[in-house]
Amino acid sequence: MGTIDTGIAAASALFSAVAGLAAYKTAREANRTAGAVAQIERDRWHTEMTPQVQLRFDTSGGAPHVVVKFLGPAPLTRIQTVVRIRDDRERGSSQASGAPTAQQVSDVVWGPYRLRPGIDGADPQGRAVAPFELVHRGQTRFALEPTPAPSWYPSAQMWRDDYDGTKLRLWVECSAQGHKPWTLSADLTTATSGSGLGAVAQVTGRTVVAS
Structure pTM? Predict the structure, then answer.
């Protein structure tokens, strides 16, 4: 092979390498774009399928309960759900002598009500209930009780004065087969009408505040 032929062959090989690299980069970018579009679509579908959960504070039976009802959307025929009490705010322990420890602070349900421990699947602290299933348009209820004052609080009456009429803050964790979980929240009024029913909190997004 002559010098000219060798040069042509080298140039051809170089051109092929450059073309191959360009094709690889183009395919990689196309895959990235397709992956990003697919992720956007999955996120959109996940948002559209957010469970619509209705919560109500109910004392019509003489004792306080929270009623949880699953309204949709229609493609979700059933969901697994966990209800948890949220504290009124983040709290930390004090370093002062005689102050409660971080664990003691964590064990307190800081709010007007807690789930009745040991009733309806509630844990010993009254913080959360065991996972339960709701079918479309189905509902269930969980017993509540006024939260007890911590042992280090100035007085039980002061505790009640601090929390009387304040809102019950809840996490509602939902899951369904074939979907990523959802974590929803609501601030549920504990004031009731003459019927003993509080205002409805319609949970349709990540954060819902009921007046």
Answer: 0.72
Burial class (CB in 10 A: 0-12, 13-18, 19+), 133: exposed
Reported confidence tier of residue 88, pLDDT bands at 50, 70, 90: confident
Determine the straight-line distance between the first and last CA of the chain, rounded to whole angstroms. 88
E-strand spans in 43-162? 52-58, 65-72, 78-85, 113-115, 132-135, 139-146
Q: Name the DSSP class of 192.
A: B
Q: What is the pLDDT of residue 193?
A: 60
DSSP assigned state of 206: S
Better pLDDT: 18 or 175: 175
The helix/strand/coil state of 93 is coil
In angstroms, the CA 20 to CA 15 distance is 8
β partners of residue 192: 198
